[in-house]
């Protein structure tokens, strides 16, 4: 040991130098911990990446794989294809009987409080009426627009139908009509009433091919031009003033402005390949009086409106000596069954709606069928 002033150092013997191992051993414990943490998070990141990939693959499989698997065809009920022969026989029996003039009106006056409906014109003929209610139960606030629309409609009466005892068939959109092969029977009726955009094209075997009156509103009118073939009348049910403007546009072939189109809750067809004489406006008084009658059948007074299917029945009661219906009835016991004879919408969709009081309508329809006023060909009520 050599002393230099107050400092002392140790001399290394020979060629001794500090080793790297000695230097590592002198580092702080924090560095070692940092290295271990880095390795942990790197490993965990790879695990998370693998898990994310697995989840993504599972999601794609859940979406894509079922599309390539065979699926069960939606039906009205499990027995819907087993009893169609009975339905055909029932329909054939009705058509083979002679038509009785005034049969429906006589029955209706005896059993139900609907005879007041028989005095109402089915289609609007002028704009002089004083309306107390707004659409759809009246036309209060739309008188000016109504006058403009009526001026472009050359006719307001019925189409040219045989002036004899008339039979009506109201074709509902229910799934019960699917695979029943009633099309040829339906086409034999004098007046055939259809609802909204219920298709004919491609469904002739079950639903028939002719249409005398199609009740609809703008958002429910079909975009397919072939659906208007063999159609005598498109009768617009007015739910708002814009519906009258739409009808004027359809008849005059003058398109609506983009601003007006924005106020419809869904895209509307801009052209229907029919002549002005093929269009009518349904008398809102029909919906109003029908709504009042339905209050006696509902659980409580509501602000709902009649379905167009039930409205079609009321129109048929006014126009025909005998009335039949097919495709009516909701199978709420099977929420997964078809709501319509076309498409894939299921019954639970109708169960969730609040616009129509279907329970009241079902009670009223059952009363009409039980009393013999209306014949239920498909028998789903």
Helix and strand topology:
Layout: E1 2-4, E2 7-9, H1 20-25, H2 29-64, H3 84-96, H4 103-111, H5 143-151, E3 167-171, H6 183-186, E4 191-195, H7 204-207, E5 211-216, E6 231-236, H8 241-252, H9 258-261, E7 279-281, H10 284-294, H11 308-319, E8 322-326, H12 347-352, H13 358-370, E9 374-376
Distance between the termini: 117 Å
Give me the secondary-structure category: alpha/beta
> What composes the largest sheet?
7 strands, parallel
Whole-number mean pLDDT: 80
What general form does the structure show? globular
CATH topology: sialyltransferase cstii, chain A
Question: How many beta-strand segments?
Answer: 9
**How are helices and strands ordered from N to C?**
EEHHHHHEHEHEEHHEHHEHHE
| Strands ordered across the widest β-sheet | 7-6-5-4-3-8-9
Radius of gyration: 36 Å
Can you name the CATH architecture?
A: Alpha-Beta Complex
Family: Belongs to the glycosyltransferase 29 family.
Enzyme class: transferase
Pfam families: Glyco_transf_29
Membrane topology: Single-pass type II membrane protein
What can you see in these coordinates?
The longest helix has 36 residues, at 29-64. 33% of the residues are buried. The model is unreliable at 1-15, 17-27 and 65-79 (pLDDT under 50). This protein has a single domain (90-376), classed as sialyltransferase cstii, chain A, CATH 3.90.1480.20. The N and C termini lie far apart (117 Å). The protein has 13 helices and 9 strands. It is an alpha/beta fold and 381 residues long. It is 36% helix and 10% strand.
